[in-house]
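Action item from last week, closing it out:
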Amino acid sequence: MAETPLFTIITPVYNRSEIVVQTILSVLDQQFSDFEYLLVNDASTDGSLDVLEAFARQDQRIKVIDLEENQGRCYARNEGLKHAQGEWICYLDSDDQYYFDHLSTMRDMIKKNPELKVFAVDQHINGILKKYRRKALHADKIMLTLNDFIEDNPLTANQLCHAPLADIQWSNERIPISEDWLFMRSLSLKYPILKTAVVTNNLRDHDDRSMNTTDAESFVRYNLLAANKFTQENPLPESISNRIRVYTDLLCANVYLKHKMKKKAFKIFKPYLVKPKTYTYALFYKAILKFFL
């Protein structure tokens, strides 16, 4: 391995002592071997640290960063970024897997597009091709910009590869969900993202995944937090800020309604009944239907 590896892979780990083994093995199985692998232990209490350190003793490309207190995966990823030595940054969640050609696919994209700073690949979810709301996202190649992340978040961190960027980092606030949407919006605001249809990773959707353990109140709180942080901290056209705020509010109202919390949903939804521009959103009509079902 060269002194400066081509890739740094960052995996935050919290209480994944059993499932993280397959994650690590998927990285070690890469056909492209010029990488360092940073495993950030977020103060696990289940023996995960012992598992990570055992792998580090076996392979010099693996380095363990041990946090003294649990800070959340955004903070853990930022700690990884601080220690990264690679020319390019990749991410892999502790319960997911790379296929053997993940890094080689990224390397080929980098070589063919030297002017770009951010790349993305396609993804399986439990072994099945990921479905996107927009058919265009299934194209062999597509350039994504902020407009693709206003009313949707088509990418996960596992799909991403970017150059070290001084003006981009994960939020240091504890945002357990929607943190990747905040990151993708911030990233795509400044850098176009070239996505290929080549599938190189698998997201394992299981019962303990954060999206499946988050209650309605937390979903609403953190989605509103992420949307507000982005619109308040970036110079955006008012039209873009409005679209983000409207979509987030309607999304949250629908989540409340899904959980039969009609009073809280109506508090969010009520102002939009007198705003005709809102009538173009499918979520507006979904909310109305849920009120009467």
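Closing note: The radius of gyration is 20 Å.
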